[in-house]
Amino acid sequence: DIVMTQSPDSLAVSLGERATINCKSSQSVLDSSNNKNYLGWYQQKPGQPPKLLIYWASTRESGVPDRFSGSGSGTDFTLTISSLQAEDVAVYYCQQYYSTPPDFGQGTRLEIK
Amino acid sequence: EMQLVESGGGLDQPGGSLRLSCAASGFTFSNYWMHWVRQAPGKGLVWVSRITGDGSNTAYADSVKGRFTISRDNAKDTLYLQMNSLRAEDTAVYYCARTFLSRDAFDIWGQGTMVTVSS
Predict the structure, then answer these.
(1) What is the rounded end-to-end Cα distance, in angstroms, of chain B?
(2) What is the C-alpha separation between B112 and A47, in angstroms, rounded?
(3) Given an 8 Å threshold on Cβ–Cβ distance, is B95 in contact with A49?
(4) Which of A40, A43, B33, B99 is deepest in the core (most CB within 10 A)?
(5) CA distances (Å), B24 to each of A102, B65, B80, in order?
(6) What confidence tier does B101 reach under pLDDT thresholds 50, 70, 90?
(7) What's the pLDDT score for residue B103?
(8) B106: closest CA of chain A, how far (Å)
(9) Mutate to test the interface with B, among A59, A100, A108 (most CBs of B within 10 A)
């Protein structure tokens, strides 16, 4: 199984500042046949289901604000929020869907400083 | 509007059984692989099971293999999770979610249904 590890576990950032969350997979999730990284990012607010933000490591889901961006390849990935807004307070999860089981990272709690 | 709505959660004793349902609407259900993901109180997301669009192939997390069975009725646009031999550690919110391809991100999620296993 591919193990997903996020860092940090929690993060406090001032409004308008940049927030960066890291995700590392125990094996590469890059498919060299199509050059796609099978990595997604989700946002979960209290009492709500997860919401897909980013897929293929860097493609923003429709309707997601452009302050959210994803980067990385192979085993190391980053979710960046360029200018933190109050509504971005949530827990963020990365997920690999390269192989079964499509496991998630442990989550990163993002708060306002 | 594309939507998934779970039902069937509740309180059951260890060793008991529950069947969860997930009703889909707003999209062609049979075109999508479907998944169950659970989240214990205050914990992270854990993938549980998945089924192909035609229902011919299934997969399970090791923690539920042999106890849980995923199935679907494409005529009713509904996904199921039969949960047997329940354990306290199965206590969680259970979400259904869809993927378009075999290896794809989970783009639509239901609101979840709570399962509590306790004596």
Answers:
(1) 40
(2) 10
(3) yes
(4) A40
(5) 22, 25, 11
(6) confident
(7) 87
(8) 7
(9) A100
Cβ of residue B9 closer than 8 Å to a chain A Cβ: no
Q: What is the Cα–Cα distance from A113 to A108, expressed in whole angstroms?
A: 15
Report, in this order, helix, strand and coil percent for chain B, each rounded to 5: 5, 50, 45
A49/chain B closest Cα distance in angstroms: 6
Q: How many CB pairs under 8 A join A and B?
A: 57
pLDDT score at B81: 98
Average pLDDT taken over every residue of chain A: 98
Give the integer Cα–Cα distance in Å for A34 and A2: 20
